[in-house]
Fold these 3 entries.
Entry 1:
Amino acid sequence: MVGGLSTSKALRILRGLADLNIVGFDVMEVSPAYDQSQLTALAGASLALEFLYMRASRG
């Protein structure tokens, strides 16, 4: 896909993996120097936060 996944698709994929015992998560390709509108940084932070919510909900 040109331009990569949309944030909503990436969140759907991440939420679909909620039942797996995933212990690590890495956010890549976020470069504040080239992200003038900070949309990429916000998307990366949203995905990382969603992962933390998933981990916390497992107990």
Note: The mean pLDDT is 87.
Entry 2:
Amino acid sequence: MPQTSWISRLPLGALRRVPGLSPGSRSLHRHLLLWLLLPQLVLWLAAASFTYQLADSYANRAIDASLSTASRALARQVKPSGSGLYIDFPRAAQDIIEADPDDRVYYMVSTPPGEFILGNSQVPPPPPLGEPRLGQPYLYDGKIHDPSGDGRREVNVRVVALYLAYGEPGRPQRMLVQVARSRASREELAGQILIDTALPLSGLIVLMSIIVWGGIRGGLAPLARLRSVVESRAPNDLAPVRLEAAPEEVRGLARALNALLAEVRENVDSQKRFISDAAHQLRTPLAGLKSQTELALASAAVGADPELHARLQRVHESATRSAHLVSQLLALARAEPEAAMAQSRTRFDLQRLARDVAAEQVPRALAAGIDLGSEDADAVSASLCVLGNAMLIREALVNLIDNAIRYAGRGASITVGVHAQGADAVLFVEDTGAGLPEADRERVFQRFARATHEGNGCGLGLAIVREIVERSSGSVVLEPVQPQGLRAVVRLPRVG
């Protein structure tokens, strides 16, 4: 019987502990979002880098063109005069060239191999060129000490070098014209182009991320619905899962889950059939054994061997206890969810049922030396109706009264009563016995759990009561009674 209880609670518990689906596992939603957004981030960085390089290249082209034009214009101001050079470069023109403090322009005119003529002598020389072509501008990067500061700060500059020839035909000479310009304007232009390109691209990435996030949520919604369907089920609900509108992958998961549920249901049903069949088969021989022991005890009572009488008494008690156990097993099988749902639910008067069951149990209580009665049974006129299976509720009440008779002790009294409390009908069975410790009041509702080894109970009575009451949408608890005793309280929803 414990196996049936364990298997009946297997499906949801097993599903929640499937390997690879533990609570610590990675979220599929986050996993997909990461692998879809990570490439976008990489592409965004690559696009930003490419855009900056492209902007820097175009800025270089514009600056290189202006530097080449400036070098030629400056070269035109240096004119050969006999064996020397005439420089027509007024101070006003120099001030115009050097007017912008953020975008400084430096120039130098010299005659290789290094005779300075005009300008700023700090302009970096061109790299080794071998035999340079005359009139061909050469562009390169360099550094120059800023003369406007303390002379120690270096400025990155873009430089053009232009070699020109002058002098008499028999004595040709070369002149080097260099114009340098700081890279501040070029870097500013490239940065502005990058910002103007990156901002719309960033907005596009954010919009795409939102779309991807929404798509993932929509794509995984069937999984969320499947999880909700499984989590909302009762532990004993083994009906197939239906997700016809879900994608093929989720339908495949649902089919696999339904196959598992079908196997578990078949396993549970086979064990329940075995227990029920075994209990039915045992009931008849045990009843016969009990009758035979009663006859043997009656015969042995007349001058028989006392030892033989004691042995027969123990056999009779064992037979009685076994018959009671079989009866309880059959009651538990009837109270199982599938069996309970298969039986009809009707509207019935709980007060009348309680009075009838109490009256039926009076002879047994008197035999045990216990006073059993109903609370104000003669004064009750109004009915108190509930919806459920009257046969199962009767079984639950019989088990409560039987439990009280077995453990209250000789000389105790038992009271059965029903009253309304809000939207509930409250049924109680109260005894004046020794009571039950608080630590055992919940444990005794478990199957085969007993709070004491006294008596001949089998530990199934209260388990059957809870099974029946919960399947009737009710609840049952044990409460202490002052000065001593125990009260079993059953609450069931009332119907008009």
Note: Confidence is low (pLDDT under 50) at residues 1-24, 377-381.
Entry 3:
Amino acid sequence: MSASLRWCSQPTRGLHGALRIPGDKSISHRAIMLAALAEGVSSIDGFLEGEDTRATARAFSRMGVQIEAPSSARRVVHGVGLHGLKAADGPIDCGNAGTGMRLLTGLLAGQAFDSRLVGDASLSRRPMHRVIEPLARMGARISAADGGLPPLHIRGGCSLHGARHEPAVASAQVKSAILLAGLYAQGTTEVYEVQPTRDYTERMLEAFGWPIEFGSGWARLEDGHRLQATDVSVPADFSSAAFFLVAASIVPGSQLLLHAVGMNPRRTGLLGVLRLMGADIREENHRTQGGEPVADLRVRSAALHGVDVPESLVADMIDEFPVLFVAAAAADGTTRISGAPELRVKESDRLAMMARGLAALGVHIEEHADGAVIQGGRIAAGQVESAGDHRIAMAFCVAGLVAEGPVAIDDCSNVATSFPGFVDLANGCGFAIR
């Protein structure tokens, strides 16, 4: 697929239908990893067929794990046990997957063999020092390019030891890398966070039978246990659902039903913010799926207004900020966002790219070091650049639905990393993307 792929999103009159969003990317990554290290055969249903998650599956295949794909969105993993991985025959390509690379770094730090992790141009600009530093405190030996950037070389045969960690930045990826290294470390591994982050790794370790204690903002595990194969049912990805939640909220006359969306409380901060803005989103049919809370979400169009986004919700919606910027641009009044410097080190500098793109569409926006101030009410037609960032590309598709004319979005090929089939699903409920 060409890196110069351009989409054009046009105004529409209403979104309708019942949708099944693809599986959660974060859970799909973790399910492959723990199933590979478990003893026995695990089945994963709802696996996200995205480029990022497929890259993680390929990594474990290259390390000797048999992974079958009997049908779309399903994987059968023949686990090799905690110490059964083998050295890959060359560098492991993580593609665009920051989650994959950071979690693999923790997991591979405890192996007997050397590993080298590489990524695409975007991933190669993302900092890894925040993972390298705590792992080094546990005894890992990891080298990186200048500035702590990929590629990473992870030395095998290191004797890891448990430690107490208090990361300066709230990051589920950092916490997860530490916990995965803790499976191979002697003693107790503990993580205490400045703000609670999503607990997917903790929940999944528990599902695979590893004793772990965790609560809001902390986790603790001991060495000396084994992972046992289990079947995982992956819920729909909340971050992917977010584009439809905002779209149906801002396009007049819309009503959508999104089935079986993951409702992990450390992931759904956007719901709280949209409701503060006046959104009409109802949760129905609450249940548990694969150890995770899920619900059907029914969203109807509503008149949104600007708000001051509570900093307490920032860590719980870090991936949803691009589409929140669009909601703010479509709302009446001023929205203020602060406490989100993490947006600068995602697949792109999302603060800079969203500010630049919205300004190109006539939106008055002030970019700050850790956020922005957005004056909503009008989105003009125009052309924007996604910088190869899948979430920015999809966010501007939503903006085009309520713009005064077409919005052209350049460099959209990376949407396949997290949401394959986005255009077909979106156009099927009333988007106008070509």
Note: The chain has a mean pLDDT of 95.
